[in-house]
Specification:
about 40% strand; single chain; extended; 3-stranded antiparallel β-sheet; alpha+beta
């Protein structure tokens, strides 16, 4: 099965309850805190291309890059393959 590199922008509405000295500090705390509530507002596809080592090299240089691959398992759930070949099929997110 072919691999793709998919770049997306996902938008959420988040609400945070924080303690701070002022609005500027409150915004900074919220930027790094866990939210109290959120609502997913949508996804915008930025770019979708077939996987190439040349293209993925750009992202490998970024902080927090995970060098695995997501796929749909035989039961229709999102699963993950790690670089060493191990898989994780948690059966939590069903792709319809």
């Amino acid at each position: 099965m072919p691999k793709y590199i998919v770049e997306q922008l996902m938008t959420y509405r988040n609400v945070y309850v924080v303690e701070a000295d002022n609005e500027t500090q409150a915004a900074k705390v919220a930027e790094h805190a866990d939210d109290n509530w959120q609502k997913f507002l949508g996804t915008t596809n930025i770019d979708i291309n077939e996987y190439t080592e040349e293209r993925i090299a750009y992202f490998r240089e970024k902080d927090y890059f995970w060098n695995g691959c997501s796929y749909v398992d035989s039961d229709g759930y999102i699963a993950y393959q790690y670089p060493n070949g191990d898989t994780n099929e948690p059966k939590e997110i069903l792709v319809k």
